[in-house]
TrEMBL record:
PROSITE patterns assigned to the protein according to its UniProt record, in alphabetical order: TRANSALDOLASE_1, TRANSALDOLASE_2
CDD domains attached to this UniProt entry: Transaldolase_FSA
A GO molecular-function descriptor: aldehyde-lyase activity
One Gene Ontology cellular component: cytoplasm
Protein name in the entry: Fructose-6-phosphate aldolase
InterPro entries attached to this UniProt entry: Aldolase_TIM, TAL/FSA, Transaldolase_3B/F6P_aldolase, Transaldolase_AS, TSA/FSA_arc/bac
SUPFAM superfamilies tied to this protein: Aldolase (SSF51569)
Species this protein is from: Clostridium manihotivorum
Superkingdom classification of source: Bacteria
Listed GO biological process terms: carbohydrate metabolic process
């Protein structure tokens, strides 16, 4: 199961990638715009933090087939390990098929139904990114939709990975992990919420207190 960070903020990426074993960083135009930086510079700076081995998923802005092909080709040349994110519009699906033939790595994005995910996988996408919380927000079943997609991809033995995205709470993440999701991309606050528990801090404080009551300040190595 891959854990990916859904942020373009360098401080957040630096902090979390130091602590956690991460499998990549995803951005989208909204995430990039928040940083108010040049897109190419930002991708390079993210790459310097996470290293050449760890992938970045970066999205096209273009909407027409021809422009998507041109922009995706440009993005794929920014670094070795990059997946070009393409929304699954008609032009997007058509472009995914063509770009796959050219050997460009693709993450199909803005997926809201299992059908869309299946069609993007069939077109050759390496990852398909369904948006969990955006579905939940309109009274649809985000987690259920992604579960269906995982089942379809696995049942037909497709090599595409489901990269669940758009999370607003850790429960959505855990439900999909239990269902065998191949990868999740989580924003900073969700990653922190997955890491932290007040009882962990309380327990550590208590261990130290009990130790120091008998042995005084110090560690095992310092006697
Ligand atoms: C993936 O990178 C998606 O673009 C992202 O998870 C969408 O998240 P949001 O619905 O919180 O904007």
């Amino acid at each position: 199961m891959q854990l990916i960070l859904d942020t373009g903020n360098l401080k957040e990426i630096q902090e979390l990638s130091t602590i956690l074993d991460i499998d990549g960083v995803t951005t989208n135009p909204t995430i990039v715009a928040k940083e108010k930086k040049n897109f190419v510079d930002l991708i390079k700076e993210i790459g310097e933090i996470i290293g050449d081995e760890t992938p970045i998923h970066a999205q096209v802005i273009s909407t027409s087939y021809e422009d998507i092909i041109e922009e995706a080709t440009f993005i794929s040349g920014l670094r070795e390990n990059i997946y070009v994110k393409i929304p699954v519009t008609h032009d997007g699906l058509r472009a995914i098929k063509e770009l796959k033939n050219k050997g460009i790595k693709i993450t199909a994005t803005a997926i809201f139904t299992a059908h869309q995910g299946f069609l993007a996988a069939k077109a050759g996408a390496d990852y398909v990114a369904p948006y969990v919380n955006r579905l939940d927000n309109i009274s649809a079943d985000g987690v259920g939709t992604v579960k269906d997609l995982i089942q379809i991809i696995d049942r037909y033995g497709l090599s595409t990975k489901v990269l669940a995205a758009s999370f607003k709470n850790t429960q959505q993440v855990i439900e999909l992990m239990k269902a065998g999701v191949h990868s999740v991309t989580v924003p900073y606050d969700i990653a922190k919420a997955m890491m932290d528990h007040p009882l962990t801090d309380w327990s550590v404080d208590k261990f130290i207190q009990d130790w120091e009551a008998v042995y005084g300040v110090g560690t095992n190595t310092k006697g």
